[in-house]
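[recover] target loaded
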């Protein structure tokens, strides 16, 4: 089978949202130990958005957008990054990064259910099987008392669930919304507007802002990696995929991310990996396999 240029780009984009995003749970967990969560996210996205728009300007990409496109990008930025990411990072103060990533793996289930409710989209047999395995995996994950018995851990689990709903809603919205024709430019607008909004919420909540000059090396290195790879590379790849493949397939990144987060959390932060968590991860991977193997989910197909 001959690989076209677009197919190669799609494969590279999936690598970015599967592997690179899998590492961001660890990076956020490291950074949030020193700096407040909303300040962390606002700094990351404002800087990343500015860099993207600057690079786009240097490359002479058209930056002009309509008022409707600006509104849509701002709304997408809020759902994806202000709430979906900002609150998620806050919840990392109370739960392990590996556990948070595993919980986030329920995203494809939420996307499929929302598409059924909002657009009456038929859930195909293979996808149903994937959803079934996903539900079992999530149940095995959240039913572990030793993981959810810590102070405020249940609150963290609940808030992550609301973030998943926000991210799923945004994924469906972006796949249909009137946006700029360039995915890189869209990422820039979404990140920059989200960063500004996060800054406002951070100030309203009285978070203490700490100059990067006083960050420790671990926090600084984590932020650099989050900006360059987690934001610019991976989020642009995500926007690209939402216009090229179905939202169900894009959402499967949340099945692979937990495995990366699980291993990195164990290796770097010495987070506990239980046998039940490993079993849950395997079952969740079966879910992503069945969703991706559905012959009825084709590249370029949009929600109808």
């Amino acid at each position: 089978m001959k690989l076209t240029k677009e197919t190669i780009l799609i494969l590279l984009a999936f690598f970015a949202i599967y592997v690179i995003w899998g590492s961001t749970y660890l990076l956020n967990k490291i950074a949030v130990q020193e700096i407040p969560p909303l300040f962390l996210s606002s700094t990351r996205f404002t800087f990343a958005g500015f860099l993207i728009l600057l690079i786009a300007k240097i490359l002479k990409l058209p930056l002009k957008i309509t008022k409707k496109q600006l509104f849509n990008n701002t709304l997408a930025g809020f759902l994806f990054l202000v709430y979906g990411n900002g609150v998620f990072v806050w919840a990392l103060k109370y739960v392990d990064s590996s556990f948070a990533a595993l919980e986030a793996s329920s995203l494809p289930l939420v996307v499929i259910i929302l598409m059924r409710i909002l657009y009456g989209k038929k859930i195909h047999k293979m996808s149903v099987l994937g959803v079934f395995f996903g539900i079992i995996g999530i149940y095995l994950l959240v039913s572990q008392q030793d993981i959810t018995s810590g102070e405020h851990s249940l609150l963290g689990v609940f808030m992550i669930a609301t973030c998943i709903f926000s991210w799923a809603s945004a994924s469906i919205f972006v796949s249909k919304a009137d946006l700029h024709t360039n995915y890189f430019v869209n990422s820039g607008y979404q990140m920059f507007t989200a960063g500004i909004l996060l800054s406002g919420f951070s100030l309203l909540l009285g978070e203490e802002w700490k100059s990067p000059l006083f960050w420790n090396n671990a926090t600084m290195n984590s932020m650099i990696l989050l900006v360059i790879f987690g934001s610019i590379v991976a989020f642009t790849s995500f926007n690209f995929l939402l216009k090229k493949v179905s939202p169900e397939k894009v959402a499967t990144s949340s099945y692979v991310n937990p495995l990366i987060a699980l291993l990195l959390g164990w290796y770097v932060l010495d987070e506990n990996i239980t046998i039940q968590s490993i079993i849950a991860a395997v079952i969740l991977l079966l879910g992503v396999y069945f969703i991706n193997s559905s012959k009825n989910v084709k590249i370029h197909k949009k929600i109808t």
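[recover] notes: The first helix runs from residue 5 to 32.
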